[in-house]
Structures are given as C-alpha cells and as structure tokens.
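Deviations from the work plan: none for this task. Representative record:
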Amino acid sequence: MALPVNLSISKTHLLTRKKQTIVAMLGVTFGIAMFILMISFMQGVNQFLEDTMLSATPDIHIYNDVKTDFSVSVAGQYFKDSNQLVAVAHPKPKEVTLNLKNAEGIMADLKRDPQVAAISPLLSTQVFYNYGPVQLNGFIDGVNITEESRLYHLAEKMIDGKPENLLTTDNGILMGKGLADKLNVRTGDLVSLATPTGSTMRFRIVGIFQIGVGTIDNVKSYVNISAVQQLLGKDRSYITDINIKLKDNKLSKIEAANFGKKYNYVSEDWETANSSVMASNLIRDVLTYVVSITLLVVAGFGIYNIMNMTIASKLKDIAILKAQGFARRDIVQIFLSQSLVIGLLGAITGLILGFFLSYLLSRTPFPANNNFISLKYFPVIFRPGHYIFGIVFGLVTTLIAGFMPSMKASRIDPVAILRG
Amino acid sequence: MAEILRAEHLNKYFYEPEPFQVLQDISFSVNKGEFVSLVGKSGSGKSTLLYLLSTLDTKYEGNIIINDVVVTGQSQNTLAKFRNENIGFVFQFHFLLPEFTAIENVMLPALKLKKYSREQIEEMAMDKLKQMDMQSFAKKPSGKLSGGQQQRVAIARALINDPLIIMADEPTGNLDSSNTKIVFDIFQHLTRDNGNTIITVTHDPDFAHKADRIIELVDGHLAK
C-alpha cells in the first residue's frame, strides 16, 4: 500500500481490468516462451551439429590434393625445337604420389607452434572388407592411435574395447559400428582387407566405435599407421594427411591459411570443410530471431491496442486528474507503468513457460532411429544469455507499445472533456 | 478584504467551427472569502471564463493573477502544481474515479501534493467526508453512490488541499432540489465560516441570488 500515488492508480487500473490485463500479458508470455523454446532448440541443434562435425573433422587438415594437369605433355618437351604442332589424344594421367613430402619435418615444426594442441599423422586408403562371403567397400585410417584419441576423444566413443588395444595387438583394427553390424562381426573376429592394388591383410577386431555420423560409422576403421604402410607397400615415412587440433578452434581459419602458405600443401579449416553446416547454422539463427521478433512485435501491438482502449475509456479520469494538478508526466507514468507491469509479468511467466517447454522437449525421445545420426533426445541447450535477452526484449517491446498511447493520454485537453 | 484573484482584459477566441470571440475585455477581481456566482445565458462564455480562471485553459489574451502570482504564461507543469495546491474543482458531472472508493478519491489530490503522510491524509479525508456527512460511505466504491452523494464526495475532494479558491462548474446542474440545497448550504458554510473563496458557474437563478456577488456575462461582455 505504500506505493507512490501514480503507481497506486495504475495498480487499481490493472486490478479492475483483470481479464484485459491477463490477455495482454499472455500475448507477451507466449511471445517470450516461443522465443526461449525456439532459440534453445535451434542453438541446441547448432551445438549438436557442430559437436558431431568436430568429432569427425579436425580443426585443420593438411593434405596433398590430386592435381591432374594434362596441359603439359612429355611429347611437347621432346619435339620442342621443331615447328611441328604436337597433339596427344586422350592422355593418361601420370602416376602421382599423394603423400606429404617431409611429413616428419612439418610435424616437428607444428609441435613448436604454441597454438597447436595435438597433431595426428594419417595414412588413409580405400579397402574392401571381406568376412566370409560378404564384401564391403570402405576405407581405413592408419593412425597413431594415441594422437588420434587426443584429437577426437575416441575413448568416449568406444562401444566395445579401448583405443589403446591397437597398440598391444598385432594387426588390430577398430571398426565403426555400422560397418561391424553389416559384416556381423564382433570383437575378437578376424576380417580380411583388400586394397585396390590387390594386396590383402587380415586384422583382428579389438574395438568398435560409434562417432554418431552414419557416413563415418558405416565405412571407417582405424588401424596402426605402420599396418597401412605395409598394406600399401610403402615406406615408414609415407603419410598422406596431418590432422591438427588447436587450443582455440576459433583461430582455425587464420592458422590454416598460415600453414598452407608455410608448407605449400592444401590446409583446410573445419569451418570451410563444413561450410554447408555452418551456413545452415546461420540460417537457423536468423530464422529464430525473425520468428521470435515477429511474435513479440505482435504481442506489442496487442498491448498497444489494449492501452489505447483503456485510455479511450479513461478520458474523463485523465481530465479530472489533470484538473486536480496531475502533470503530463504523471499521466505518462500512470499508463506507461501499466504496460511495463504487463510486460514484466508477461516476460517472467514467458521465461518460466519457455524453460518448461524447452525442458519437456529436451526429454522427448528423438524419433528417427537411423544410422546417420545418433541422438536419443531432441537437442536443447539452456543458456542464461537467452533468458536475459528474452526479458530485455519483452520489456523494450512493451515500453515502446505503451509509450505512444501514454503520450497521447498526457496530451488530452481536459477543458474539452470537462465541458462535455 | 484581501484581493485573491484578478482578471485583466481577458479576450478569448474560438476558431472552430468559425472564428468567434467568446470573451471580450473582461476585467474584475474577487476578494478572499467571497462566494461569487458567474451567470449568463447559454453561450455567454461563463464556463469558458471559469476554465480560464482555473488555469486549465491557457489560450487567451490578458492576464490572470491569483494570490499575487501571475499565472498567465506559466508552463503546463507549473500550472498543474499550482492547481494541485491552490484550486479545488467541483463539476456538474461529479467526475469521481469510479474504480476508487470515496475516501481514495478524496485522498488523491493530497497524495499528489505530498505535504502530509498517507495516514495524516487519510485522517484529513475522513474529516472532510464528515463535514459533508459522507463518512459512512467512505469505503464504498464511488461508482455505487448516488448523484448527490457523489457531488458531496467531489466537494470533499476539492477541499482536501485547503485551496485558495474553489471553482465550480454548474455544481447543482445535475441534482434535485434537496441535494441542491445541501450543496448550497455547504458552499455558504465554507465561505462564511471557513473563509474559503468560491467561484461558481450556474444557471439556477435561486442558487445564484443567494451568493455574495453575481457576475453576469452577456455575449462575452460583463453586464452592467
């Protein structure tokens, strides 16, 4: 009861029109709740995709790109003195080696870089997996499993066995879950791998992993790098890729450009490698804000309408207050505080409702049980920042929506109304 | 007797629907404790004059001096404060705030003035209601009161800040004869015994003739 006089008037106004007040408030409530739900969900999806992406993509990937350049021919070199036109029909590409020359040197140099957290050398090749009569196409990554683990936290993704088993077993293999399911193999079984060049080797399964991305789990296996070198008949220094994890992955773009220039190989950062995912993240963000702002603007118009109606029905009261010595700013205060109260209550209930709905969604099982993504529940994140934004935006909307009618009320000429 | 209000050469024009001079060179003064009736035919400008004197209408030529303060040309905010402190209003259509109880209506101008604490104001408001014989209706919502009762609450409200002048626009225009008598007796009591100054617009000749002084307007001029 100790409210200042203007606020106690506005409180009485609000309480005598409970229904209108609640309707106006619900407009804001739903606007804010939907904003919270949408942003929590969309950001959750973004986060999930980014995490999945980063579990399959290194921060920076250095490799040797295949260049098939047919513009220069040996024939041209041979006949270069004469005035003859030399044309070679349908040339075959020359034999290219895809390895990184001086990989050891590059790695030693990378280790000195303060930004680099982990480096994993890689030798990848296509293979056929043979188990009984089944033959499946896929590829194997020859890695130093300790380094690779540091890059992708493999230990957390093992369904069976441990990554270190590779080190202790001769010709061990860690297999993707989808692949293992298709071959119907489990830990301890032997599979035979054939390369496109024709060589074959037998490996014993020592672990099964699931990254959560179908395109990887269905085709990929890990073995020791030396095993792949042996399978391909290459020497111990033959490495095709270097994967790098940075201390701060936001710097990937800059660092990747530096490495590319320094080592003269293709150096790709994760954002470029997954530019389509990054683009869809951006689209989801924009969509969320557009829809939320629309909802809040609609709620704002609701408040604007209700305040206008209130003021139209209170012309006499405004005139009498003015006659009794209430100044313009008192009138503005009386009506603006009403819309702010509506906004504040609406925003708070909206945040609570939004949190509740987000929580429900985060406990809802994700329906698609497919091989492409492994997701138990809808991805939802809870960030205080979103809630702060919601309440600030709710208040700003109602402030603007209430301001215009309040100003109008304060400009009313009492004489015109009191004379009737 | 001390002069409390002086009007000097007031001119007022209406521009809608067509230019028209409502008040022409009006000059007069009112002394403290006087009960003045403003009379005249419909359209003679008596209400217009009252709204000029009350500082609600500021678009006029000439000067108005209330209690040695020139109110002409002051800012709206200053005038609002001035009205709050020095002028009490009573209107034809009592104009109470319907959502509030009778006593809350009476208290509002004093709460705005903030000269006293809430408890003191409540006590004062109760006193004023007693003076109007309305104390038993104090906690009733003002919308539920009869016309005569509402008008008495409105008078109590006009008195709450002990104003210099009470201005009334047809205070009995909407009341039956018994209520008219009550209002008149209250006004007379206020001027005779309390020393209040009252300027009231009326077209009730009986009511007007009981006042201390009659100021008559004819077509925007002072009569006589």
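The interface with chain B takes residues 1-2, 5, 8-9, 12-13, 16, 316-317, 319-330, 414-415, 418-420 of chain A (CB under 8 Å).
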